[in-house]
Amino acid sequence: MMNAPSPLWLAELCKSPNSQAALESIVQLFTANTGTLHRIGPDGLLHLIAIVGNFPPPVMDAIRKIEVGKGLAGLAAERRGPVTVCNLQTDSSGDVRPGARATGMEGAITVPCFGGAGGGEIIGVLGVATFAPREYSPVETVTLLECGRAVAALLAASTQNDPTA
């Protein structure tokens, strides 16, 4: 189990040069093997803008654009809260789609990235996963939500340089 990052660490995360650098820091903080960061586009879909780790081509095709309500990232956006799975390979909750199992990951958590005028708008979704089963503690869940808030400004800024926005 990890310790919560300091407010200074979160402040530095906000200063990351881009969303890729921020995601790499978050994956490292969580001692995770992979991570994804999606931004909600004007089409209402979640668009992949940063990734850490290697994913099989069929998985990459499936995660480039995700409908809200579909898959772990889409469910986090729809529910406006964290979605955790201790083991993607054996989960029977109905939240895990076949493509998620193809990643080879087991422990996963996704959270909405809140930002915008009042801080209540979902700007995107942040997720990390591990090769081993993992129960994410309440501290880890809150920490990832805080990381999501910290990168929300980077997600909003990414629309300026992204032709899909």
Describe this protein's structure.
The structure is a single chain. A 6-stranded antiparallel β-sheet has the order 3-2-1-6-5-4. The protein has 165 residues and is α+β, with helices and mostly antiparallel strands. It has helices at 7-14, 19-29, 57-63, 71-79, 98-101, 138-158, and strands at 34-40, 46-52, 65-66, 83-85, 107-115, 121-130. The chain has one domain (19-158): GAF domain (Beta-Lactamase), CATH 3.30.450. A hairpin with a 5-residue loop joins strand 1 and strand 2 (46-52).
Structural key phrases:
Beta-Lactamase; 6-stranded antiparallel sheet; 165 residues; alpha+beta; 36% helix; 6 helices
- Secondary-structure-based class equals alpha+beta
Total helical segments: 6
Question: In angstroms, what is the radius of gyration?
Answer: 14 Å
Largest sheet: 6 strands, antiparallel
Q: Could you say what the CATH topology is called?
A: Beta-Lactamase
Through-space gap between termini: 37 Å
Please, what is the CATH homologous superfamily? GAF domain
Q: Provide mean pLDDT, rounded.
A: 85
Strand order of the largest sheet: 3-2-1-6-5-4
Reading off the top of the CATH hierarchy, the class is best stated as Alpha Beta
- CATH 2nd-level architecture: 2-Layer Sandwich
In what range is the share of β-strand residues?
15-25%
Uncertain spans: none
The SSE string, one letter per element, is HHEEHEHEHEEH
Helical percentage: 25-40%
Number of domains: 1
Number of E-state strands: 6
Shape designation:
globular
